[in-house]
Write a structure and sequence with these properties.
Protein name: Phage tail protein
Organism: Salmonella enterica
Structural class: alpha+beta
Order of helices and strands: HHHEE
Low-confidence stretches: none
Strand order of the largest sheet: 1-2
Mean pLDDT: 73
Number of helices: 3
Helix content: 25-40%
Largest sheet: 2 strands, antiparallel
Radius of gyration: 24 Å
Strand content: 5-15%
Shape: elongated
């Protein structure tokens, strides 16, 4: 089958739209450089970069738990 016939098959089954969408998609090689609003993206995936907390009373408040497995050097902080 010649190359043109194969290309026509792709167009006929609607792959042209898929190709166009993939061309405009975020690229892994950009490492997030093509994310237009990085703060909003971080909040959307649950990786809030900062937060404000207001308490009405004085005293001690538990606002986070820090977990750091001994085998790693990564700390996991869970905010309440």
């Amino acid at each position: 089958m010649p190359f043109q016939a194969i290309l026509c098959i792709f167009i006929n089954v609607g792959l042209r739209e898929t190709i166009n969408r993939a061309a405009g998609a975020m690229q892994k090689s950009q490492n997030g450089g093509d994310i237009p609003d990085k703060t909003r993206f971080a909040r959307t995936i649950g990786a809030v970069t900062s937060t404000s907390v207001t308490f009405g009373d004085s005293g001690w408040f538990k606002i986070a738990t820090v977990f750091m497995p001994q085998a790693t050097s990564t700390a996991v902080i869970k905010l309440y």
